[in-house]
Structures are given as structure tokens and as C-alpha cells.
Amino acid sequence: MTATPESPTPKSAPQPAPAAETRPVRSAVVIGGNRIPFARAHGAYAGASNQDMLTAALDGLVARFGLQDERIGEVAAGAVLKHSRDFNLTREAVLGSALSPETPVYDLQQACATGLETVIGLANKIKLGQIDSAIAGGVDSTSDAPIAVSEGLRSVLLELGRARSPKQKLAALARLRPKDLAPEAPSTAEPRTGLSMGEHQALTTAAWKITREAQDELALASHANLAAAYGRGFFDDLITPYRGLVKDGNLRPDTSLEKLAKLQPVFGKTLGEEATMTAGNSTPLTDGASAVLLGSEDFARRNDLPMLARVVDAEAAAVDFVHGKEGLLMAPAYAVPRLLERNGLRLSDFDFVEIHEAFAGTVLCHLAAWESEEFCRNKLGLDSPLGSVDRARLNVTGSSLAAGHPFAATGGRIVATVAKLLHEQAAAEGRRGRGLVSVCAAGGQGVAAILEAC
Amino acid sequence: MNAHPEAGPASRREEVRLPELPSVSRLLVHAATTAARERLSGTSRPAALPAVRHTVDSVRVELERLTRFQHLVGGTVRDSLPSAFLHTVTFPVAMSVLTRADFPLPLPGLVQLANHVRQYRAVHFAEPLTLSAWVENLRGHYAGTRLDVRTEVLADGEAVWQGTSEYLAKGVFRPGLDTGARPAREDFTPPAPTARWRLGVDAGREYAMVSGDFNPIHLSTVSARLLGMKRSIAHGMYLASRVLAGIEAVAGDEHEWNIRFAAPVYLPAALALRIEDESRNEHWVASSFTAWGEHSRRLHFSGSVRTL
């Protein structure tokens, strides 16, 4: 239906809307966020499904911003551990929520970067004027993880379905072996290497010579910062209690370096070098969900909603980890420099730096890489090191080591946190600060984003 | 592409055309009964390798077996044949040479020491293949007697794949063959791993199903013990196939690879591996690999894949 120069336009017809190519790019802002407290696996949310938890996070957001029966431009969310019946997980959650059932939805999956990627994708649609409002989110449950039948049983069942004669059916069944009846739980092992994420990180941690003490200190800071943030009520408008949980179940406000030092290493025990990664400086398996409300500035003003921060730009990266060329979780170390380069920024230009704490070692390896002249020259092609991150600006309200990490829910937790931190700072100091978000993901991927106070 | 330096002076060999692919299990039974009969009657085997070349024409790959092979070794189900799969395709022809009455070494107890394979182009599963096998290079080894089993795959009259498997007949010494001194065992310090394999006790049985190599030393603890092993061991070619499946994405179809086995992998097993890529001008040229016992830290095999 686009008008071509040849097609005559009657003079009385209304002016058509500007074509998509000529529409100016506008801002996408974070209005607010909501999550349920993250629970340790097989704890408070053991009976809740991904759909239940995502619906709870959405309903909390709806209640907070008065979105009952609102038709949102688009909702995108996802889960990393997902049952095949949940192919429309987010749509089902929206249908079960207080949002208008006429809200369109899509599911997204990018391992642990799922939540951040939903924010980026939806923010881009808002910037292009395709939608005016959006909810980004994610959820994961390790307590209610899908359990699959073994490959042997699956192949027999499929063969049985294809069989036509009783003889063919018997032949299919005859292939069944007792061990085929054992179920298969999802594993965190990388399919191409057979190494778990923790073992991969242990290799990277050892390669960068990150000490046990440095990792324990980062873990301690995460718990202390998260506890302090709860203490000052920072999460009051970011969290809705669920199933009796009001705070993240993994938070240990009273932990100490001495307690952390007592824990036995759990990853990297066969490396030959000293194993440094423990349950204390590694993120536990957790259940939880998060949601972030995004909109155009016009949408926020029209609905009298706050504008916390603009989603400025984002970059994804992937590394070749399969034969050990780079560490599995090091992709953000490449995404961030590219993102900074494009935006003409340095690490010191950020007031808040959020690096997802998959493991304390992951964060410390990133920091070490950006300070390394060799890495920055040989791997990033830079003349000088990217620089240091001021620890006073790093994960200032705690991160995944203390809060937990329900894979797809982490991006939403971090974006809502940084947006609120930037807004607080802008209100207190009257300046537009910047926040950097970095999330590593399975498969050697990583996503980074820049937010700026409104 | 017609004359490969390794094709050998086939003209001096007697050409034996087999009507069809022989059954490996029948050949194995035949070899076992021959060995038993020889022990009873005291007949001895000839001193030289038979100057024959066994060939089977118009062999077609069974698609379902190919799919199962590709899945079992962790490869992608593609229409082209993995070079390690082509080894299993030629295996019955090689076995038909090794089980001949005039083959000088007893088949039970032959140990695979190394493999070298060159593949010159992609081979589609539907191509009719001509498979040949012969033996050569009988020579001494500090632990017995060695030989090379050569196999070749032709498509459209052109050699597309060539393999050399080095076997050792342990404890069999032939007069006139220089055994040489046992080399000092090289120290092995495991490097940082890039992968881990957990091999179940049934890894040997599963590979036998897709490769047709039903040697009892691979099938179960009981059958392996009957042949004097403490437990069953993984097929060398399973280990090779699996490591190659992890490299096939970068290596493409025209490449050569070699593997040398240092110690048998008793099942079940936890192996650690390091696979390292080598590139020139940002293009892959080779990958080298090493595998060792995750806990024993003992070297099991090593090798490389290289572009031709």
C-alpha cells in the first residue's frame, strides 16, 4: 500500500504518515521494574512453574504502574530451562496476568543474556516507533526444571509412533533397554566440551591467576552491598514478595571472609593448579522472575509514569571457546570495548558498572583483561589498556553472587537496578549519569548495554 | 588426483574381488577357530604377508547406520561421510585380509597403535564406493611384530580416501625382524583441558553397533576378561571419531588426520582433552589433540588434523 511516485494522489486525501525510513529515532526509557525475590533451588518456589513466577513478576509490575487491562505494545521474555509445552511461555503468562489479553508477546532465549536481550530488542522497537510501550523480562526455575526422557527411550517412542504394523511396533519396543528408562535432567555442561560452566570458568580463572582471596572479597562485597541496599529500602519498589519470601533467599548478610575462606573448592579440582572456586564465590542455582517496563518518553508522560533512564546502545559478542581459544564466559570482555568505542566512551565515564556475577572469577577476569596491555593489544586491537573499573562503582547494590541468578531473570534485575540508581543519582546530584551493564552467557556469548539517566 | 604417493605398487599384488562386503562377526569366529585349530595341530603360519589386495565394488552406505554413527560420536547429521566413518566402511574388507589362512599373525590380540587417514574430497552417502584393503610393512617392535593395514576408498574410479592402520601383534616375535630397544617412557604433564568426556561402560557396545567391530574386548567386562583384559576397552576408532567430530566444523572435507594410541581406555572412563587450533592468516590449517585420564593423568592418545 506504499505510495510510489507514479501513483497519483488525490489532493483531498490526508497526508500519509512518514515512511519508516524517514521517521526519526526517538528515546526508549526504563520506567521501572519488578521482580519476585530470588529463591534458592528447591526452596520457597519449589512448586511454582516458570509460567507462575513470570505471571507473578508481571502482575507486580502491573500493580505498581497501574497497567490493569492496558494493551502494552509488546511483551518479550524467556526462560533458559524451558519445557517444550511452554513454547508460548510469555504469552501464557500475559494471558494469566492483569494485562490486556490483546497484548502481543514473543519468547526469546539467549541463555543468561535472555533478560538483557529482551530489554534491548524492545527498546529498539520503541526507538523506531514500532511500539510505544513494552515489558521485558525473564524467568527460570531449577526446582521445576523440565526432565526429559533418555535419547534411547525417545527414539523408541518416536519409532513406535511411526510403526504401522504390530510387528514393527514390537521391533521398536524390543530396542528398549533398562537404562533408557532413566530420566535426563538438564545440565550446565557445554554440549561441545562436556565441561560445566564452573569448570570452564575455573580454567579462565586459573589462566588469569585470579586468587581465592580476591574472589572471596568480591563475594563478600556482593552480600554486603545487597544487604545494605535492602537496609535502605532500595528494593521496596523493585520487588514484590512471593510465596512467603520477601528478600532473596541466598543473601547472607552476616557472611565474612573467614566463613568464605572455610569453604572447599567445587570447580577446577582436576586442573593441577590450586582450585579457588567455591560455593561461596560461585552463583548458586536459583528460581525467580523479573520484568522491566519500557516506553517512549511520550508514553511515560501521557500516563504520568516516571522516566528513570534511557537505553542508549547495546552490543553482543561471542568467543571461540570450543578449542580453548578464549574462556567460555569472556565474551563481554569483547562486547564492552566495542560498545565503548562506538559511543566514544571510556570505562571511567560510567557512574555505575554492573557486571553479572556468574562467578566472582568471571568479573575479576573481565577487570583483569581490560587492565591487561597484552589482552587489549592482541585480542582487542587497542593501543593501550581499556582501563580499570572503580570498585566503588561496581555492582553497588550487590549482584548475582548474593541475589542468586535465575538465568533469564538476571538481565531484568540488573536493568531495573541500574535505571533506579541513575535516577536516584540524577535526583540527588542533578546530573545525567551513565550505567554499563554486562552479562555473560552459555555458548561463549555476552551482551553489554549502556543506560543513561533521564 | 590419480597417483597418490601412498597408493603403493599394487600391481605386484594379486587382486582378489570379493562378491560383497564380508560379515565381520563371521570373519572373527573363523579367525578364532583357525587360531584354536593351529594351537592344537601345531601348524605354523607363513613368515611373509600375503601379496594380495582385496576389493569390493559398488558398496553403498546404509543411511540409518550413518545417522546413528554421526549421533553417537557427537557429529552433525550431514549427507557427506565423516572420514572416520569411511574407516568403519572399509573395516570388513581389511578384516577379510587379516583373517586369511596365509596371514602370518594371529588376529586375536592384534592391538591398534596408530592411524593415518587422508581424505581428498567430500563423499556423498549415496555414491557407490569401491573398497580395497591390503597389508604391508611387516616389521619388529620391542613388544612383538608390527604391520600396516592399508585401506582405500574409490568413487568414480578415483581414490577419495586412504587409510593406514598400524597394528601390533603383542608377544609374537618373528626371526629376522629387528625388535629394537624399548624406548624410555616420555614424561607426560597434562596441559589445561578444553573438554571432558565421560565414557559409560557401554561405550564399546554402542560403537560396535554402528561400526560393526564386535571384537569381544570392547563389548563387556566379561567378554574382555575372557581375552585376558581386566575390563573392556573403548574402540580406538571411537575415540578418533569423537575427537574428529569436534573438529569437523572447521576442518571441512579435504584433510588428513593421524592418531597414536599410548594406552588403552578402560571403560567406564573420564577423559580430559585438549584440542588446539592452528591458523594461518586467520584461516584454520590444523588442530592438534591430546587426551589423558582425568584422574590418572596418564596419556591415552594424541594426534592432529591438517588441511591438505
TrEMBL record, chain A:
The keyword Acyltransferase applies. GO terms for molecular function: acetyl-CoA C-acetyltransferase activity. Residues 307-452 form the Thiolase C-terminal domain. One of its GO terms (cellular component) is cytosol. Residues 29-298 form the Thiolase N-terminal domain. Residues 1-24 are annotated as: Disordered. The keyword Acyltransferase applies. The active site is at C112, H405, C440. Belongs to the thiolase-like superfamily. Thiolase family. This is Acetyl-CoA C-acetyltransferase.
From TrEMBL, chain B:
Residues 205-280 form the MaoC-like domain. SUPFAM superfamilies: Thioesterase/thiol ester dehydrase-isomerase. One of its GO terms (cellular component) is fatty acid synthase complex. Transmembrane segments: none annotated. GO terms for molecular function: fatty acid synthase activity. One of its GO terms (biological process) is fatty acid biosynthetic process. Belongs to the enoyl-CoA hydratase/isomerase family. This is MaoC-like domain-containing protein. It comes from Arthrobacter mobilis. The lineage of its organism: Bacteria, Bacillati, Actinomycetota, Actinomycetes, Micrococcales.
